[in-house]
Amino acid sequence: MTKIWEKENTKVKKEVEAYTVGEDYILDMQLLPYDIKASKAHAKMLYSNGYLTKQELGQLLDALKELEKLVLDGKFKIKQEEEDCHTAIENFLIQKLGDAGKKIHTARSRNDQVLTALRLLYIDKLATVMANAKSLQKQISVFAKENKGMQMPGYTHMRKAMPTTVDTLTLAYVAMLDDDITMAKSVLAVLDKNPLGSAAGYGVPLRIDRGITTKELGFETVQENPIHCGNSRGKYESMVVYCLFGFMQTLNKIASDIILFSTSEFGFFKLPHDVCTGSSIMPQKANPDVLELIRGNSHVLHGNLVTINGICLNLMSGFHRDYQLTKGPALNSIKITNDSIGMMTLVFAGLKTDKKRLEDAMTPELYATEKAYKLVEQGIPFRDAYKKIAKEIDQN
User: Fold this and answer.
1) Is 279 an annotated catalytic residue?
2) Model pTM score
3) Are residues 148 and 297 both part of a single domain?
4) Fewest C-beta atoms under 10 Å: which of 126, 220, 233, 358?
Protein backbone atom coordinates (compact mmCIF):
# COMPACT_ATOMS: atom_id res chain seq x y z
CA MET A 1 0.00 0.00 0.00
CA THR A 2 1.56 3.27 -1.17
CA LYS A 3 1.99 6.16 1.22
CA ILE A 4 2.12 9.63 -0.30
CA TRP A 5 5.26 10.51 1.68
CA GLU A 6 7.03 7.22 0.92
CA LYS A 7 10.39 7.14 -0.86
CA GLU A 8 12.44 4.18 -2.09
CA ASN A 9 14.80 4.29 0.88
CA THR A 10 12.03 4.78 3.45
CA LYS A 11 11.71 1.88 5.85
CA VAL A 12 9.73 2.63 8.97
CA LYS A 13 9.30 -0.04 11.63
CA LYS A 14 5.78 -1.44 11.85
CA GLU A 15 5.57 -0.51 15.51
CA VAL A 16 6.46 3.10 14.72
CA GLU A 17 3.96 3.16 11.88
CA ALA A 18 1.16 1.86 14.11
CA TYR A 19 1.98 4.37 16.85
CA THR A 20 2.13 7.38 14.53
CA VAL A 21 -1.06 6.46 12.70
CA GLY A 22 -2.97 5.96 15.94
CA GLU A 23 -6.72 6.25 15.35
CA ASP A 24 -6.39 8.64 12.43
CA TYR A 25 -7.49 6.11 9.83
CA ILE A 26 -10.68 5.55 11.85
CA LEU A 27 -11.36 9.20 12.68
CA ASP A 28 -10.75 10.22 9.07
CA MET A 29 -13.81 8.30 7.92
CA GLN A 30 -15.66 11.38 9.16
CA LEU A 31 -13.37 13.63 7.11
CA LEU A 32 -13.64 11.69 3.83
CA PRO A 33 -16.67 13.57 2.40
CA TYR A 34 -15.06 16.92 3.14
CA ASP A 35 -11.67 15.96 1.71
CA ILE A 36 -13.39 14.66 -1.42
CA LYS A 37 -15.20 17.99 -1.74
CA ALA A 38 -11.91 19.86 -1.34
CA SER A 39 -10.24 17.57 -3.90
CA LYS A 40 -12.92 18.42 -6.45
CA ALA A 41 -12.34 22.12 -5.90
CA HIS A 42 -8.57 21.65 -6.06
CA ALA A 43 -8.84 19.75 -9.36
CA LYS A 44 -10.88 22.60 -10.87
CA MET A 45 -8.26 25.09 -9.72
CA LEU A 46 -5.46 22.99 -11.24
CA TYR A 47 -7.34 22.84 -14.55
CA SER A 48 -7.97 26.57 -14.51
CA ASN A 49 -4.25 27.21 -14.05
CA GLY A 50 -3.20 24.78 -16.78
CA TYR A 51 -1.91 21.88 -14.71
CA LEU A 52 -4.65 19.49 -15.83
CA THR A 53 -6.22 18.93 -19.23
CA LYS A 54 -9.98 19.11 -19.63
CA GLN A 55 -10.04 15.33 -20.03
CA GLU A 56 -8.02 14.80 -16.85
CA LEU A 57 -10.30 17.13 -14.93
CA GLY A 58 -13.34 15.19 -16.12
CA GLN A 59 -11.75 11.90 -15.15
CA LEU A 60 -10.83 13.16 -11.69
CA LEU A 61 -14.27 14.63 -11.02
CA ASP A 62 -15.99 11.44 -12.17
CA ALA A 63 -13.71 9.29 -10.01
CA LEU A 64 -14.24 11.53 -6.99
CA LYS A 65 -18.00 11.34 -7.52
CA GLU A 66 -17.75 7.55 -7.64
CA LEU A 67 -15.70 7.56 -4.43
CA GLU A 68 -18.23 9.87 -2.81
CA LYS A 69 -20.99 7.34 -3.51
CA LEU A 70 -18.89 4.46 -2.18
CA VAL A 71 -18.35 6.38 1.05
CA LEU A 72 -22.05 7.25 1.30
CA ASP A 73 -23.00 3.60 0.77
CA GLY A 74 -20.51 2.43 3.39
CA LYS A 75 -18.45 0.54 0.81
CA PHE A 76 -15.15 2.36 1.27
CA LYS A 77 -12.83 2.06 4.25
CA ILE A 78 -9.48 3.69 4.99
CA LYS A 79 -6.86 1.03 5.64
CA GLN A 80 -4.53 1.43 8.60
CA GLU A 81 -1.51 1.33 6.31
CA GLU A 82 -2.96 4.26 4.35
CA GLU A 83 -2.84 6.34 7.53
CA ASP A 84 -5.49 8.91 6.63
CA CYS A 85 -8.22 9.99 4.23
CA HIS A 86 -5.79 12.00 2.08
CA THR A 87 -3.69 8.96 1.20
CA ALA A 88 -6.80 6.81 0.73
CA ILE A 89 -8.28 9.27 -1.77
CA GLU A 90 -5.04 9.64 -3.72
CA ASN A 91 -4.49 5.87 -3.85
CA PHE A 92 -8.05 5.42 -5.15
CA LEU A 93 -7.50 8.02 -7.88
CA ILE A 94 -4.12 6.60 -8.94
CA GLN A 95 -5.48 3.07 -9.04
CA LYS A 96 -8.45 4.29 -11.08
CA LEU A 97 -6.79 6.82 -13.39
CA GLY A 98 -3.03 6.31 -13.35
CA ASP A 99 -1.11 9.49 -14.21
CA ALA A 100 -4.17 11.73 -13.91
CA GLY A 101 -4.57 10.51 -10.36
CA LYS A 102 -0.92 11.25 -9.62
CA LYS A 103 -1.49 14.91 -10.54
CA ILE A 104 -4.12 15.59 -7.85
CA HIS A 105 -1.49 16.35 -5.21
CA THR A 106 0.04 19.14 -7.29
CA ALA A 107 0.21 22.40 -5.28
CA ARG A 108 -1.03 20.97 -2.01
CA SER A 109 0.20 19.11 1.06
CA ARG A 110 -1.46 16.83 3.58
CA ASN A 111 -1.14 19.82 5.90
CA ASP A 112 -3.50 22.12 4.00
CA GLN A 113 -5.66 19.15 3.04
CA VAL A 114 -6.41 18.31 6.66
CA LEU A 115 -6.83 21.99 7.54
CA THR A 116 -9.39 22.37 4.79
CA ALA A 117 -11.30 19.16 5.48
CA LEU A 118 -11.46 19.91 9.20
CA ARG A 119 -12.49 23.50 8.54
CA LEU A 120 -15.35 22.34 6.29
CA LEU A 121 -16.42 19.73 8.85
CA TYR A 122 -16.37 22.20 11.74
CA ILE A 123 -18.46 24.72 9.82
CA ASP A 124 -20.96 22.03 8.83
CA LYS A 125 -21.21 20.48 12.30
CA LEU A 126 -21.44 23.79 14.16
CA ALA A 127 -24.33 24.75 11.89
CA THR A 128 -26.00 21.48 12.90
CA VAL A 129 -25.36 22.16 16.60
CA MET A 130 -26.97 25.59 16.27
CA ALA A 131 -29.98 24.19 14.42
CA ASN A 132 -30.44 21.50 17.07
CA ALA A 133 -30.08 24.08 19.84
CA LYS A 134 -32.85 26.13 18.23
CA SER A 135 -35.06 23.02 18.17
CA LEU A 136 -34.36 22.55 21.87
CA GLN A 137 -35.27 26.21 22.49
CA LYS A 138 -38.61 25.67 20.78
CA GLN A 139 -39.34 22.58 22.88
CA ILE A 140 -38.44 24.40 26.10
CA SER A 141 -40.60 27.36 25.04
CA VAL A 142 -43.58 25.04 24.58
CA PHE A 143 -43.04 23.71 28.11
CA ALA A 144 -42.72 27.27 29.47
CA LYS A 145 -45.95 28.31 27.75
CA GLU A 146 -47.81 25.31 29.16
CA ASN A 147 -46.67 26.31 32.66
CA LYS A 148 -46.84 30.09 32.30
CA GLY A 149 -47.27 31.86 35.63
CA MET A 150 -47.00 28.66 37.69
CA GLN A 151 -45.20 29.67 40.85
CA MET A 152 -42.21 27.85 42.28
CA PRO A 153 -39.52 28.68 44.83
CA GLY A 154 -36.36 30.35 43.66
CA TYR A 155 -33.18 29.19 45.40
CA THR A 156 -29.86 30.66 46.43
CA HIS A 157 -27.28 28.56 48.28
CA MET A 158 -29.74 25.68 47.64
CA ARG A 159 -32.10 27.28 50.16
CA LYS A 160 -35.47 28.88 49.44
CA ALA A 161 -34.96 32.53 48.50
CA MET A 162 -37.77 34.28 46.61
CA PRO A 163 -40.77 33.32 44.49
CA THR A 164 -40.32 32.74 40.79
CA THR A 165 -42.25 30.83 38.12
CA VAL A 166 -41.64 27.69 36.10
CA ASP A 167 -41.63 29.68 32.87
CA THR A 168 -39.11 32.21 34.24
CA LEU A 169 -36.75 29.34 35.08
CA THR A 170 -37.11 27.49 31.81
CA LEU A 171 -37.02 30.60 29.62
CA ALA A 172 -33.69 31.35 31.31
CA TYR A 173 -32.46 28.18 29.59
CA VAL A 174 -33.64 29.55 26.26
CA ALA A 175 -31.72 32.77 26.89
CA MET A 176 -28.59 30.81 27.85
CA LEU A 177 -28.80 28.89 24.59
CA ASP A 178 -29.07 32.24 22.76
CA ASP A 179 -25.68 33.14 24.23
CA ASP A 180 -24.24 29.79 23.16
CA ILE A 181 -25.53 30.25 19.60
CA THR A 182 -24.03 33.74 19.47
CA MET A 183 -20.67 32.31 20.55
CA ALA A 184 -20.91 29.60 17.88
CA LYS A 185 -21.60 32.23 15.23
CA SER A 186 -18.49 34.14 16.25
CA VAL A 187 -16.40 30.98 15.96
CA LEU A 188 -17.91 30.29 12.53
CA ALA A 189 -16.82 33.77 11.43
CA VAL A 190 -13.23 32.92 12.41
CA LEU A 191 -13.33 29.51 10.72
CA ASP A 192 -14.75 30.82 7.45
CA LYS A 193 -11.35 31.22 5.73
CA ASN A 194 -9.88 28.95 3.08
CA PRO A 195 -6.49 27.41 4.00
CA LEU A 196 -6.19 25.31 0.82
CA GLY A 197 -3.10 26.32 -1.13
CA SER A 198 -1.01 27.09 1.94
CA ALA A 199 0.55 23.61 1.48
CA ALA A 200 2.90 22.71 4.35
CA GLY A 201 2.63 26.23 5.77
CA TYR A 202 4.84 28.11 3.31
CA GLY A 203 2.84 28.16 0.09
CA VAL A 204 3.90 26.53 -3.19
CA PRO A 205 6.36 27.73 -5.87
CA LEU A 206 3.64 27.53 -8.52
CA ARG A 207 1.08 29.95 -9.89
CA ILE A 208 -2.24 29.03 -8.30
CA ASP A 209 -5.55 30.82 -7.77
CA ARG A 210 -6.79 30.29 -4.24
CA GLY A 211 -9.84 32.38 -5.03
CA ILE A 212 -11.18 29.52 -7.18
CA THR A 213 -11.15 26.98 -4.36
CA THR A 214 -12.49 29.60 -1.95
CA LYS A 215 -15.55 30.11 -4.15
CA GLU A 216 -15.97 26.40 -4.89
CA LEU A 217 -15.89 25.47 -1.20
CA GLY A 218 -18.12 28.30 -0.05
CA PHE A 219 -15.59 30.03 2.18
CA GLU A 220 -16.06 33.72 2.89
CA THR A 221 -12.43 34.58 2.13
CA VAL A 222 -8.91 33.24 1.61
CA GLN A 223 -6.71 32.69 4.65
CA GLU A 224 -3.88 34.61 3.04
CA ASN A 225 -0.82 34.06 5.21
CA PRO A 226 0.35 30.44 4.79
CA ILE A 227 2.06 30.36 8.20
CA HIS A 228 -1.14 31.66 9.78
CA CYS A 229 -2.96 28.73 8.15
CA GLY A 230 -0.65 26.22 9.81
CA ASN A 231 -0.63 28.03 13.14
CA SER A 232 -4.44 27.99 13.25
CA ARG A 233 -4.35 24.19 13.70
CA GLY A 234 -5.10 23.48 17.31
CA LYS A 235 -6.13 27.03 18.08
CA TYR A 236 -9.22 26.71 15.91
CA GLU A 237 -9.95 23.32 17.48
CA SER A 238 -9.77 25.02 20.85
CA MET A 239 -12.25 27.67 19.71
CA VAL A 240 -14.64 25.05 18.39
CA VAL A 241 -14.55 22.96 21.55
CA TYR A 242 -14.77 26.03 23.77
CA CYS A 243 -18.02 27.10 22.12
CA LEU A 244 -19.33 23.52 22.32
CA PHE A 245 -18.41 23.50 26.00
CA GLY A 246 -20.64 26.57 26.36
CA PHE A 247 -23.61 24.53 25.12
CA MET A 248 -22.67 21.72 27.48
CA GLN A 249 -22.42 24.13 30.43
CA THR A 250 -26.00 25.18 29.70
CA LEU A 251 -27.15 21.57 29.42
CA ASN A 252 -25.31 20.76 32.64
CA LYS A 253 -27.26 23.47 34.47
CA ILE A 254 -30.58 22.28 33.03
CA ALA A 255 -29.81 18.65 33.86
CA SER A 256 -28.82 19.53 37.43
CA ASP A 257 -32.07 21.45 37.95
CA ILE A 258 -34.33 18.76 36.54
CA ILE A 259 -32.60 15.95 38.42
CA LEU A 260 -33.08 17.82 41.71
CA PHE A 261 -36.62 19.06 41.09
CA SER A 262 -37.83 15.64 39.92
CA THR A 263 -36.71 13.85 43.09
CA SER A 264 -39.44 12.54 45.41
CA GLU A 265 -38.30 15.11 48.00
CA PHE A 266 -39.14 18.00 45.65
CA GLY A 267 -41.51 16.51 43.09
CA PHE A 268 -41.89 19.75 41.10
CA PHE A 269 -41.18 18.04 37.78
CA LYS A 270 -42.10 14.61 36.45
CA LEU A 271 -39.73 12.99 33.98
CA PRO A 272 -41.29 10.98 31.13
CA HIS A 273 -40.85 7.25 31.69
CA ASP A 274 -39.49 6.72 28.20
CA VAL A 275 -36.31 8.68 28.99
CA CYS A 276 -35.68 6.95 32.33
CA THR A 277 -33.93 3.66 33.00
CA GLY A 278 -34.50 1.11 35.76
CA SER A 279 -32.57 -0.69 38.47
CA SER A 280 -31.45 -4.30 38.30
CA ILE A 281 -32.43 -4.80 41.94
CA MET A 282 -34.94 -2.09 42.96
CA PRO A 283 -38.28 -2.46 41.14
CA GLN A 284 -39.47 1.05 41.97
CA LYS A 285 -36.59 2.93 40.38
CA ALA A 286 -36.93 5.27 37.37
CA ASN A 287 -33.48 6.75 36.99
CA PRO A 288 -32.57 10.00 35.20
CA ASP A 289 -29.50 8.41 33.60
CA VAL A 290 -29.76 10.47 30.44
CA LEU A 291 -29.56 13.70 32.46
CA GLU A 292 -26.71 12.35 34.57
CA LEU A 293 -24.76 11.48 31.43
CA ILE A 294 -25.41 14.92 29.96
CA ARG A 295 -24.08 16.37 33.21
CA GLY A 296 -21.07 14.04 33.14
CA ASN A 297 -20.36 14.66 29.47
CA SER A 298 -19.96 18.37 30.12
CA HIS A 299 -16.87 17.39 32.10
CA VAL A 300 -15.68 15.20 29.22
CA LEU A 301 -15.82 18.27 26.98
CA HIS A 302 -13.95 20.31 29.54
CA GLY A 303 -11.30 17.58 29.55
CA ASN A 304 -11.15 17.66 25.74
CA LEU A 305 -10.63 21.42 25.85
CA VAL A 306 -7.80 21.07 28.39
CA THR A 307 -6.24 18.33 26.24
CA ILE A 308 -6.29 20.44 23.06
CA ASN A 309 -4.95 23.52 24.80
CA GLY A 310 -2.18 21.53 26.47
CA ILE A 311 -1.09 19.87 23.22
CA CYS A 312 -0.83 23.17 21.35
CA LEU A 313 1.04 25.28 23.89
CA ASN A 314 4.81 25.90 23.50
CA LEU A 315 4.95 24.81 19.84
CA MET A 316 6.89 27.10 17.51
CA SER A 317 5.32 28.23 14.23
CA GLY A 318 4.99 25.53 11.61
CA PHE A 319 3.54 22.03 11.57
CA HIS A 320 4.11 19.53 14.37
CA ARG A 321 2.73 16.00 14.51
CA ASP A 322 1.33 16.87 17.96
CA TYR A 323 -1.58 18.53 16.13
CA GLN A 324 -2.84 15.11 15.03
CA LEU A 325 -3.86 14.49 18.64
CA THR A 326 -6.32 17.40 18.63
CA LYS A 327 -8.53 15.79 15.99
CA GLY A 328 -10.01 13.08 18.21
CA PRO A 329 -11.03 15.38 21.09
CA ALA A 330 -12.56 17.88 18.64
CA LEU A 331 -14.62 15.28 16.77
CA ASN A 332 -15.62 13.62 20.04
CA SER A 333 -16.81 16.97 21.42
CA ILE A 334 -18.97 17.63 18.37
CA LYS A 335 -20.70 14.25 18.67
CA ILE A 336 -21.26 14.56 22.42
CA THR A 337 -22.76 18.04 22.09
CA ASN A 338 -25.13 17.16 19.27
CA ASP A 339 -26.23 13.94 21.00
CA SER A 340 -26.74 15.73 24.32
CA ILE A 341 -28.84 18.50 22.79
CA GLY A 342 -30.99 15.82 21.16
CA MET A 343 -31.45 14.00 24.45
CA MET A 344 -32.43 17.17 26.29
CA THR A 345 -35.01 17.91 23.57
CA LEU A 346 -36.55 14.47 24.19
CA VAL A 347 -36.68 15.17 27.93
CA PHE A 348 -38.58 18.43 27.48
CA ALA A 349 -40.98 16.84 25.00
CA GLY A 350 -42.39 14.72 27.84
CA LEU A 351 -41.56 16.74 30.95
CA LYS A 352 -44.51 17.59 33.25
CA THR A 353 -45.04 19.61 36.41
CA ASP A 354 -46.86 18.69 39.62
CA LYS A 355 -49.04 21.70 40.41
CA LYS A 356 -49.87 20.63 43.98
CA ARG A 357 -46.23 20.02 44.94
CA LEU A 358 -45.32 23.42 43.53
CA GLU A 359 -48.14 25.15 45.42
CA ASP A 360 -47.21 23.41 48.67
CA ALA A 361 -43.60 24.55 48.26
CA MET A 362 -44.60 28.23 48.24
CA THR A 363 -44.02 28.66 52.00
CA PRO A 364 -44.23 32.04 53.84
CA GLU A 365 -40.49 32.76 54.11
CA LEU A 366 -40.30 33.12 50.32
CA TYR A 367 -42.23 36.40 50.65
CA ALA A 368 -39.94 37.99 53.26
CA THR A 369 -38.25 40.34 50.78
CA GLU A 370 -41.63 41.35 49.37
CA LYS A 371 -42.83 42.20 52.90
CA ALA A 372 -39.73 44.29 53.53
CA TYR A 373 -40.34 46.30 50.36
CA LYS A 374 -43.95 46.93 51.32
CA LEU A 375 -42.57 48.65 54.42
CA VAL A 376 -40.17 50.60 52.18
CA GLU A 377 -43.17 51.82 50.20
CA GLN A 378 -44.53 53.19 53.48
CA GLY A 379 -41.38 55.29 53.92
CA ILE A 380 -39.39 52.98 56.21
CA PRO A 381 -35.64 52.80 55.34
CA PHE A 382 -34.78 49.47 53.73
CA ARG A 383 -32.29 48.42 56.40
CA ASP A 384 -34.87 49.01 59.15
CA ALA A 385 -37.50 47.16 57.13
CA TYR A 386 -35.06 44.29 56.57
CA LYS A 387 -34.38 43.95 60.32
CA LYS A 388 -38.08 44.18 61.22
CA ILE A 389 -39.05 41.32 58.88
CA ALA A 390 -36.02 39.26 59.96
CA LYS A 391 -37.09 39.62 63.59
CA GLU A 392 -40.63 38.52 62.79
CA ILE A 393 -39.30 35.43 61.03
CA ASP A 394 -37.00 34.57 63.94
CA GLN A 395 -39.91 34.85 66.37
CA ASN A 396 -41.97 32.46 64.32
Assistant:
1) yes
2) 0.93
3) yes
4) 220
